[in-house]
Here is the input.
Amino acid sequence: MELSDLQTSPGEWLGGTGPEADIVISSRIRLARNLAGYPFLSTANEQQLGELERMVRERLLNTCRAEGMSYFSLPSLGPIDRQFLVERHLISRELASGKGARGVGLAVDETVSIMVNEEDHLRIQGLCSGLQLREAWERVDAVDTRLESCLEFAFSPQFGYLTVCPTNAGTGLRASVMLHLPALVLTKQINKVKRAVEKISLIVRGLYGEGTQGFGDFYQISNQSTLGKSELDVIELIENVIPKIIGFEKTVRTNLMQQKREVMEDKVWRAYGMLKCARMITSEETMDLLSAVRMGVSLGIIQEVKMDAINELFLFTQPAHLQKQREAQLDETERDVVRASYIRKRLQQSD
Amino acid sequence: MLCEFCNKSEAVVHLVDVSNNSRAEKHLCKDCAASQGATIKSHMQKSSSSTKDASDVLPEIFQNLSATSGAAETEACGQCGTTYRQFRSSGKFGCPECYVGFNVKVSDLLEKIHSRCEHTGKVPSTASEDLAQQKELQTQQKLLQGLYADLDKAVNDEDYELAAELRDEIQRMQAGTAEA
Here is the structure.
């Protein structure tokens, strides 16, 4: 598989096919693993890093044939390709900007990605569309079990899987669900959700994880602690809270439609109008406007565009995706022009 | 009650500090409490920000931990050489051995982060075989101890027939363990 094979499709996880897909974008599970008998990356030298990467890559490709695994070495990828993988949530910003031997294994449908030499030796990630944490876990668990047969992971019966940062020790599992919550943001109630969720030891983050704000009204809910609770307990904890947040968002949407119908319709149609007419548009503005249109589609205010077209636009209008489509490096102003033209074309197609 | 700080005025401010499973009380007068105002304020800030991103919480935990454990800053992990000071400033271990390499109790640290310090959940199949073997050995040893006790009792009771049976049983079991 070549990276360019990915760019024409949005990846299975953005297909908008999963349960509760109008509010839940995706469900993600990641496992942190390290090899026994090797230093962690924080102290490994260049030679050890190279040795580790070679060995993991070889075993990965051998054991994950069923997933159609391809491997990409990060130093051999240009900055646009790296950013492209970050935008698709297949690698972290840390892996993209890191140094030394490192890479990523990708399943052909993009539902499993395995980062090598990120913070830990391995970060195994499963990504599914909609609310499907269990499915994501099953995929990751299967890959982890197969890798275990050819790699010995650092493990202690008391502390579980040993990780570079003690905040990941134990299961090494981070489960997160990405939600689109425009009505809660609009009515300034998102902080209520944050506080309630934090009370049960879960965290709320922005679109690209730690330290990012809620771009386009997207929020990720994930677990904080990784020790002392089994994988399925953590998943259940999140699974139980998500329907409540979905319910809250839906109630607020219904109330807004009953009490401020014109205001809502105006907001949605204006956003749609801007997207259909703009000649230059930044990434941030695109996200904001798409977020309003997405809510409008979900509420039936706009019927001429399909949800999956909007989902795709969120991804395909990101800087690296635009540059890959054009097969050229573009500066910010050029990107704004190309972005606006791309959006106009896509929205005309769906008319 | 008089103020613990100046021992002059009546104590009107009562502080209770619960940390590391111990409880410390302070009784202060109005003036002394005001002069220690900064302390009171900082306590409140700590409790109000109990759930932040894990990376924000670490420095705070380290501060509390090193104050109580007396771990030497220069102490280093025997395997990778990472010092406790390095671990404290980066929040990153140097190798799997660091989990047992420092004098500071990693279990205390993990308990502060996760509220628990015993792993439950997936176990690698290789490790689970080891664990199963260990458990089996332990049960066999318990069985053997029981048989020896029965044997002693049989000899004391002069029940030599039973004693002989028990002796054979013990021999069979020991031979089995030796083979395994």
Notes: Chain B touches chain A at residues 51, 53-55, 57-58, 79-82, 90-96, 99, 106-107, 109-110, 113-127, 131 (CB under 8 Å). DSSP finds eight helices and two strands in chain B.
